[in-house]
Amino acid sequence: MKKLSLANTPTRIEEIQLMDADLPAHLYIKRDDMTGVGFTGNKIRKLEYLFQKALDEGITDVITRGAVQSNHARATALAAARLGINCHLVLQGHRDSKDEANLFLDQLAGAHVHIIGREDGYPDQVMEDLKKDLEAKGAHAMIIPVGGSNGLGSMGYVDCFNEILEQEEEMNISFDTVVCVAGSAGMLAGLVYGNELAGGKKDIVGISVLDSKETVLEKTLPPIIDEMNELTGNHVANYNVTILDDYVGLGYAKSRPEEMEFIWDFVSQTGIILDPVYTGKAMYGIFSELLEQHWSEKENILFIHSGGAFGWTREQMEMLLRK
Ligand SMILES: *Cc1c(COP(=O)(O)O)cnc(C)c1O
Q1: Which among 5, 70, 149, 174 is annotated as catalytic?
Q2: Architecture category of domain 13-41+149-321 in CATH
Q3: 156 CB under 6 A from ligand 1?
Q4: CATH second-level architecture of 43-148?
Q5: Which ranges of the chain have pLDDT less than 50?
Q6: pTM for the whole thing?
Q7: Which residues are CB-neighbours of 260 under 8 A, at least 6 positions away?
């Protein structure tokens, strides 16, 4: 399957040491936060496939959606700018959201931003309506699903899984467990799929920042896996995956003081930036699982650092500094 080359890959893998924590396993980080500056994070691996399709089909306008501070929207806006494609973002949030962080970068990239509230209806419907409007004016528009998480986008994380297998050889190491954040779960789906194609030897763990374990397992993952089966001609039906939903905390994009405290400790001891919405919660989860001895059978754990540094809003920065 063809894809564009937009991301800096392979991304490096580093071992992490915290001065004040005696971890019962080796913890490694795959630096997908270093896929690029504007492109930082996991979305660009999915967009390499999705924008290839857009170019192949002569698409003039892409439409996608997310929360007002969506990393996916920002990466899509910048990739579209690079490729000379118009970008329309349907963002859920307050109409008076501050033009900061990702929302600022969306506009810097020239994206058309539509902020919608509950009264505007379902965001997927808003995207469909926008597509009709654009096509009535002669555009050739394509909708990219939330998070870029369909079968095609998730192929980017099958590639990432294969990249890990190559790095294991080079580094002479074997990761028994691969951990990532589960949001729209395209990253997780790709890693799960790659693992199954390679014989299913690793534990794949998704730490949810949004939905319950049941929702991820029953509603979110299966359709993405089905689409990957259709695209690749494989028949992956049963797969090994663990979802932890104990670290959603107060809910999507809402932070607790203990998470902020942890992020502060982690960043100030490693120089690796975590964000409050995704990687901060996941890393807090990993440390909790390790320190509470829930993962005592694990030896080499690899966390996929999925980016998010632009997700810090003024409000969250103030919360961290006040901790
Ligand atoms: C989108 C995102 C995730 C979640 O990835 P999904 O494929 O949507 O599950 C994790 N971390 C960061 C920083 C993200 O932007």
Answers
A1: 70
A2: 3-Layer(aba) Sandwich (3.40)
A3: no
A4: 3-Layer(aba) Sandwich (3.40)
A5: none
A6: 0.98
A7: 276, 280, 319, 320, 323
